[in-house]
Design goal:
two-stranded antiparallel ribbon; mainly alpha; single chain; 5% strand
Length: 222
């Protein structure tokens, strides 16, 4: 079902064409063409903040464009981890394997704030960092996002959980990280104020931890 969704390309974005290889057909392996250098390989450290800003801004624009396609994505088999569903999923996990039940109310409150907030669900890469973005050797080409194996439909701002964590290693300057986050949030500023968006970011990064855990569960069960 997910393969069907690979055929879609948002306006202003171009997808890479994937052809099925003999390895995939016979052995179940996925062989992809060389996409060129990734951000962390292609640029010197002085430009890392600039490349982070470019990549995250384009990614955020893509998320915004895909909002109307959320029902189609879910129908196509993309996991649905929207804030409305996360409390039920968390309770199922706690019942199955146990866990800190005292943390559940705060999690549910964060989900409720996100669900009633102004930023709607969209695609969430869930592993967005400079190792998953192709650029040209000079770092000036249009970014190409890959490795969507952990992606799901959820709160789009949850993408900052991994992005900020890795950015802190690539560009350990709070002022530069804030500037990159401001750029990422820009496509959503017609829906909410910047202050409201940062409130959403705090909640989204909190609930995104469940999505990360579920992603690892899916990966280890294959």
């Amino acid at each position: 079902m997910r393969r069907r969704w690979l055929g879609y390309s948002p306006k202003g974005f171009q997808r890479s064409r994937l052809n099925r290889s003999p390895l995939e057909l016979e052995w179940g392996w996925l062989l992809l063409p060389d996409g060129g250098p990734i951000v962390r390989e292609a640029v010197v450290s002085e430009r890392m903040g600039e490349l982070w800003e470019m990549a995250l801004t384009r990614y955020s624009e893509m998320q915004r464009q895909l909002v109307p396609s959320v029902p189609d994505m879910v129908t196509a088999g993309v996991p649905d981890l929207t804030p409305a569903r996360l409390p039920e999923i968390l309770n199922e996990v706690v019942e199955r394997i146990g866990g800190p039940v005292d943390a559940v109310p705060a999690f549910e409150e964060a989900c409720e704030r996100l669900e009633t907030g102004r930023v709607p669900p969209s695609i969430q890469h869930d592993d967005f960092h400079t190792g998953n973005v192709f650029v040209g050797p000079d770092g000036n080409s249009e970014p190409v996002f890959f490795d969507w194996g952990d992606a799901y439909v959820g709160h789009p701002l949850s993408s900052l959980l991994i992005a900020i964590r890795v950015m802190s290693l690539d560009e350990p300057d709070p002022a530069k990280i804030r500037r990159v986050c401001d750029a990422y949030l820009r496509p959503w500023t017609d829906l909410a104020t910047r202050s409201e968006l940062y409130d959403h970011v705090r909640d989204a990064m909190q609930v995104a931890k469940l999505g990360r855990a579920l992603g690892w569960t899916r990966a280890l069960s294959r």
